[in-house]
Design a protein that fits this description.
Structural class: mainly alpha
Radius of gyration: 26 Å
Number of strands: 2
Strand order of the largest sheet: 1-2
Distance between the termini: 73 Å
């Protein structure tokens, strides 16, 4: 993410109100704009196509299909992306760019297989048990696989610092989505919900094709070193677990409430709790700016301190290393406190606006009673993720795994318990789990600060390890030596 920091330094360096606003806008564009564009496209289609006037069953089937497409495309991609990102970063550092295509193709194959199989099983159930038309089911499956491709290719473009292209591709794809949906409904006369689903599927495939073309234009030579990519999964298996647990922890509390009496079942296949899921979405948007703030500040400040420390370790004096270490951890603490302070103000303002304005747009009742607790939980959750990123900086993968396990399990257990509470406390399990994860990450960072010298200098071996047959335990033979002396 260093490319963001360079750009933001140039913007904020002028130190004017206008450039501050430009910097905030740029940070938003390169981080959360794709998600906002997709939401905007769906809202536009619903408005222009009269989505609210069609039957309840059709509306809920479409909404449930879109919900499942997004949630499970993220979940199935989570185990692979962090390791592939690490491999690609190392390849770029070593300037062996011909090794990137093997990583891309092998990772794509793994994502497709891991995503396709459960998707096929679900679609079979949806058609034969739920009675959903096979064309509708197949279109939803294609949209799901398209989004898997989109999220996967976004990983490579992000590492190449092409954040603006990602946003631009989403803009093109979603504009195409809205236009095609209007053509299907207004000109051809197709049903509204199927036209919307097919249009968004086409839009996702357009985005995936554009991302694939850019990746192939950057990297043209294939070294064929697929085995090295697989070796990274063995070497950095902790990344697989951490990233999967983090993504799972984002939604596991929803899954728990899907098992309660509040659940709604659509087509005997899609299970959801509309009020709780909507409250979760609002809570996430209330705190999503934390990712923008974190990326901005880390790229502008902490990355430089980390670089100075790394240079001191590789070629500096002992005193230089100690000074750089103190300055780095001092800034790390300041950044965490600053992130919490700024995000608290932003979240509080958004929360108050939501509580005042949302009832005027039809959001109220149980959704707004659940929302406050979840908003507090996601505030802590994004702070916890900042700690995980700092642990990645120091290559403390074991600490990241411990944080992920503590977070996910605590959210699961806490959510099961909170289902027995009054509705205003339904989000208490998610909030408590996020706090447990944040505490685990904070304690691990403090431990790392005290033991960083051992963590940095006492890993590795002076001699290269090899797997060979065990040598004989005999050191010498007295009789053999005596015989030699007699001769």
């Amino acid at each position: 993410m260093a490319g963001i920091g360079v750009r933001l330094n140039k913007i904020y360096g002028k130190n004017t109100l206008t450039t501050d606003l430009v910097g905030v806008g740029y940070s938003t564009v390169v981080t959360i704009a794709p998600m906002l564009v997709v939401i905007g496209a769906i809202v536009a289609m619903e408005y222009f196509l009269g989505f609210s006037r069609i039957g309840y069953r059709e509306r809920e089937l479409f909404s449930s299909t879109i919900l499942y497409i997004f949630i499970f495309s993220l979940l199935t991609a989570a185990p692979f992306n962090s390791v592939l990102s690490r491999y690609m970063s190392d390849v770029i550092y070593n300037e062996t760019y011909e090794d990137i295509l093997p990583c891309y193709y092998l990772g794509l194959l793994m994502n497709v297989v891991f995503s396709a199989l459960p998707g096929i099983l679900f679609c079979i159930h949806e058609h034969f048990v739920g009675g959903v038309n096979v064309v509708y089911v197949f279109t939803g499956y294609c949209g799901y696989m398209a989004l898997v491709f989109v999220f996967y290719s976004m990983l490579y473009l992000s590492i190449c610092k092409d954040y603006k292209k990602i946003s631009f591709f989403f803009m093109i794809g979603m504009i195409l989505t809205v236009l095609i949906s209007l053509f299907f409904v207004k000109v051809i006369g197709w049903p509204v919900t199927y036209s919307m689903l097919l249009s968004i599927t086409i839009g996702f495939w357009m985005i995936a094709a554009l991302e694939f073309s850019v990746v192939r234009s950057y990297f043209r030579v294939n070294s064929g070193k697929y085995k090295e990519v697989l070796e990274y999964f063995r070497k950095y298996w902790q990344l697989v677990i951490t990233n999967f647990l983090y993504i799972l922890g984002l939604y596991v509390h929803n899954f728990v409430f899907w098992t309660t009496d509040l659940r709604m079942v659509v087509a005997k296949s899609f299970i959801s709790v509309t009020t709780y899921d909507m409250a979760t979405c609002l809570a996430m948007f209330t705190n999503i700016s934390a990712s923008v703030i974190f990326i901005s500040r880390v790229e502008m400040h902490f990355h430089e301190r980390y670089k100075v420390y790394s240079e001191a370790v590789t070629g500096g004096r002992g005193e230089d290393i100690r000074v750089a270490k103190k300055r780095m951890f001092r800034l790390l603490s300041e950044e965490l406190v600053s992130l919490a302070r700024v995000q608290f103000i932003i979240s509080l303002i958004i929360f108050l606006l939501a509580m005042v304005l949302l009832p005027k747009f039809g959001f109220g009742g149980l959704t707004l009673r659940i929302y406050p607790c979840l908003a507090a939980g996601y505030f802590i959750l994004f702070l916890m993720y900042a700690e995980i990123i700092f642990l990645y900086y120091f290559n403390d993968l074991s600490g990241a795994v411990l944080t992920g396990v503590a977070f996910c399990l605590s959210v699961l257990v806490g959510s099961i318990i909170s289902t027995q509470f009054q509705d205003i406390w339904y989000g208490a399990g998610q909030m408590a789990g996020s706090f447990v994860g944040w505490t685990a990450g904070y304690l691990r960072l403090r431990w790392l600060e005290r033991n960083l010298d051992e963590h940095i200098f006492c890993k590795g071996m002076l001699m290269k390890s090899r797997h060979l047959p065990k040598p004989s335990s005999k050191v010498y033979s007295r009789y053999t030596i005596q015989k030699g002396v007699d001769d």
